[in-house]
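Sequence in, structure out. Go.
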Amino acid sequence: MEDKLVTIGSYSSISEAYIFSNILDMEGIECFVTDANASLNPPVTTPHDGGVKLTVRESDVARAISALNKQKANYR
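Output:
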């Protein structure tokens, strides 16, 4: 049985989504950036409008969130 994909973040720019995607890649967590074209169409989208999404497999959600929170804490 395959895991379903879960959105763990929504961003207003594709570059921001790929920054977080790279963090997950370095942790060995497979992730996917979806709706990348949303940031290219006017009017400018915001995360609240859906934006560019970062998704991971359901089985990786806890690890992914932990990895992102750990990285964010390093920059405070």
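Check: The CA atoms of residues 6 and 43 lie 26 Å apart. Helices lie at 14-26, 61-74.
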